[in-house]
Structures are given as C-alpha cells and as structure tokens.
Amino acid sequence: MLLHMNDTVDQPIRYLFLILSAVVLFFPMGCTSIKPTGARILQYHSGQCLRSIEEFTKRLYLKNPKYEMDRARRQEKIEQIFADQQPVGEFSGQSSDELLKAAFAGSTVYPDRVYLLGLGLVKSIREAYGLDQSKAVMIGLQIPIERLERLHYNISQVNWRLKTYKDDNGRLLFLTNAPGENGYINMGYEVIMTEILTRIQDDIYLRGGLPGKYVFNMSTLFMSILL
Predict the structure, then answer these.
(1) For the chain, which terminal residue's Cβ has fewer other Cβ atoms within 10 angstroms, N or C?
(2) What is the gyration radius of the CA atoms in the chain, in angstroms?
(3) 36, 183 in Cβ contact below 8 A?
(4) DSSP-derived secondary structure letter, 136
(5) 2-49, pLDDT tens digit by residue?
(6) How many Å apart are CA 119 and CA 37, to the nearest integer?
(7) Helices marked H in 82-221 — which ranges?
C-alpha cells in the first residue's frame, strides 16, 4: 500500500524527508551552490568591465607608445595589471584612487602613465565589487551601493580627464579620440568607457539606487572606494 504524507508517520521521519527534499532542491549538484540572479548579474558585469579595461589599456598603449616603447615589456605590464595577485613593489598597498591620481599628476616619479591608469581602473573594479576579498564575488545585496556610486564617479572622472588634462607643453597626457591622418575620429575609446559606465549604472539600479540622481561634478579629487 502506498504511503501518503497524511497517513500516520512518525514525526522524525517526516522532518527528515523535508530536510532531504530541501537539500536536493537547493543543491542538485552536490556541493555546487546556486547564486541569486542579482549576484550573477553583478559578477557578469564586473567580468565584462575588466575585459573592457583590458581592451582600453591595449588601445592606450598603441596610441601612446611613449609611455612604454618596448612591445614585449608592454605586454608584460598588461599581464601584471590583470594578474590575480596584488601588485608588488612601489604599488603594493596603494588604493585605486591613489593610482588614478598618480596617472594624471602633473609630475610623476613613475613614467608609465598607461600602466598607472590601467592598474587604477582594475583595482577600482575589484574594490567596488569585492573581487579582492576571500569570495570570488560578494552576494549582490552585500555590495554597498556607495561603492558602486563611487566607482561610477571615479570612472566618469577618468573619462573627463582623458579629454582635458595636459602636460606643461599643452599636450594631452593621453591621446584617445584625436583625429587620425585621414581626418576621422576614432570613437572606440568613448564606446568602451560608455559601456563600462552603463554596466555600473545598471548595477546601481539593481541595488536599489537611481542613477538619475547621481550627479558627476568636475572635482579635482578621486573618491576612495574602500569603506
């Protein structure tokens, strides 16, 4: 005879049945956990942002070879920027805002501004999304919205400074959308920055914020993301 749940069954057996059902439901692949949808979106966006910054850094080196003339050394630096481990030496322990500030400083002891900028942008993403912490990515609701807002602020300011900051001779520190020999303007840099900022805005909205109320002003300071 088939046994139904409304039949007489010892209470401990019923509780055990419910517990096992819950385990099967939430962990169908053994130890594999299911991430909430919000966390998956933030993880996807953070990865896409890092890939966009890598493309952006490569383009900057091509457009500004004076910061690293050796192509092999240039590739090594790009790999260092996106390596999982923290940078060593003079940049060890520096926050993203410190690195970004150094990239646009009037005088810098480190001559490769592209490396400083790329490292600062990558560290900004990792700080904001918690990628440098013990977990691969924080659960969506655990990422403070203030981090994402400050990330949006800093990258917006980077985008502005790329177009306006000049050296003592009146030349832009970074060549990006300058017209080529054929007279056409390469807007690839602008597209990449817009993609990054749009993803961050979406994540701010996902966390309950309103990107429309977030105003970027032309401040002279980068904001620290670490809280």
Answers:
(1) N
(2) 24
(3) no
(4) S
(5) 444 454 445 555 444 444 444 444 444 444 444 556 778 888 999 999
(6) 29
(7) 96-103, 113-129, 145-164, 188-206
Domain boundaries, the chain: 37-213
Q: Which of 56, 64, 96 is nearest to 194 (CA)?
A: 56
Tokens coding 209: 């914020």
H or E, element range at 63: helix 37-63
The DSSP string of 15-59 is HHHHHHHHHHHH-TTTTPPPPPHHHHHHHHHHHHHHHHHHHHHHH
At 15, the amino acid letter reads Y
137-187 per-position pLDDT tens digit: 455 557 888 899 999 999 999 999 999 999 989 999 999 876 655 655 567
Cα–Cα distances (Å) from 91 to 53, 69, 79, 138, in that order, read 19, 21, 15, 25
**Residue 96 corresponds to which amino acid?**
S
Structure tokens at 88: 């060593």
Instruction: Say if residues 119 and 82 touch (Cβ distance below 8 Å).
Output: no
Number of Cα atoms under 13 Å in the Cβ half of residue 87 = 23
The token duo for 28 is: 């169908």
Structure tokens at 24: 């099967």
**Under 8 Å between Cβ of 141 and 124:** no
